[in-house]
Automatic annotation (TrEMBL):
<keyword id="KW-0812">Transmembrane</keyword>
<dbReference type="Pfam" id="PF13519">
    <property type="entry name" value="VWA_2"/>
</dbReference>
<dbReference type="InterPro" id="IPR036465">
    <property type="entry name" value="vWFA_dom_sf"/>
</dbReference>
<feature type="domain" description="VWFA">
    <location>
        <begin position="39"/>
        <end position="224"/>
    </location>
</feature>
<keyword id="KW-0472">Membrane</keyword>
<keyword id="KW-1133">Transmembrane helix</keyword>
<dbReference type="InterPro" id="IPR002035">
    <property type="entry name" value="VWF_A"/>
</dbReference>
<feature type="signal peptide">
    <location>
        <begin position="1"/>
        <end position="29"/>
    </location>
</feature>
<keyword id="KW-0732">Signal</keyword>
<protein>
    <submittedName>
        <fullName>VWA domain-containing protein</fullName>
    </submittedName>
</protein>
<dbReference type="InterPro" id="IPR051266">
    <property type="entry name" value="CLCR"/>
</dbReference>
<feature type="transmembrane region" description="Helical">
    <location>
        <begin position="393"/>
        <end position="413"/>
    </location>
</feature>
Amino acid sequence: MITKRRLAAGLCGLAATLAAGLFPASAAADEPTAQEPPKIDLVLDVSGSMSARDVDGKSRMSAAQQAFNDVLDAVPDDVRLGIRTLGATYPGKDMKTGCQDSKQLYPVGPVNRTEAKAAVATLRPTGWTPIGLALRGAAQDLAGGDATRRIVLITDGEDSCGQPDPCDVARELAAQGTHLVVDTLGLVANDKIRKQLSCIAEATGGTYTSVQHTDQLSSRIKQLVRRSAQTPPVVPKAVQGSAQCGNAAGITPGVYTDREEFGQHRYYKVAVTDGQELRATVSVGADRAVNADYGVLLRAVSGEGQELVRGSDAGSGRTDVMSSGLRYVYPEKDTDSDDALPPHTVCLEVSNSFSAPDAVKRTPGLPVELTLDLVDAPDEAADVAAFGLGRGWVLLGVLAVTGLFAGLIWGWLTRWRVAVWRSN
């Protein structure tokens, strides 16, 4: 008679067999490479307006200090954090002097919580609001190495200096290709403030958040700090495309960042060898107001200018990013000779059809992210299943095996139920 214990043991064994058959063990992973700890610079507005008492019955400055204390207690050990201020030292009315008022309060590095809290506790609402200057200073605070970088700007107002323009500074930082993200938090719900802080964040792929309470401010900064600790496996490399294929920069598998003006064409050169498949994707971000109707085109062309393959996408209305991709196998046709073909030069052409109103600034260009990979091309024998579930054969096989084992399990359960019924 089949007992419950035997049934359970049999089901466990069957599940293990099924898992081993459908999901074979992969090869041992390579040893992980050490990554630099992420860097974060908290930029705090200490201008005179931070003395206003409209956040949970206390001043904006007091609310920010309390939130900073909470954040410092929660900073992960693998994060390097610093603090920069703006408007903290000059109480006068001279604009030239006030617009140079930004300093590093606590250097970016491992956090000594006692020292950092003591430094924050000394701050008093004082001067002007040179946001653009502070952003440049924060970028310098984070300079060096290949770690991911994040600036978190906390302010209650717009930039009061005008030069440098904060949005222009944010675009400059994004154009440097140093994987720098700027997140902005506004302590006052105001359309002008929202517009400027959103512009800063969007230019670097960051976020804008309006906060009105201390716990909201603390929670949001903690969230951004934790997000920074999730270091991406690949840091994009800065590259400059060319207007022509002949003198284009050579690139290898990886992720690259560049800037492209409205309607511009940029070329990047790739060496593809016999039996390789080139895979490429491109994303063009709309980090400023653009007109409706736009598109992005990615082409692979030979050194002689012959188009090999293309990918494109288009849209209309509001967008944040447009993407496209392509695949190209070299050689595309079989050859009678067994000799390997010489390396083949392929140029990737990236172009866009974005446009914008006359009032929108053209420089720097739109952010471009290009991903490239070279893999072994599928051989003729495996060509049918080379593209996975797209051809349906793998899916059909999985369904067949699943149905077979489901039938066996159902039959086993039926036999057990009959045996139990007869024993009673």
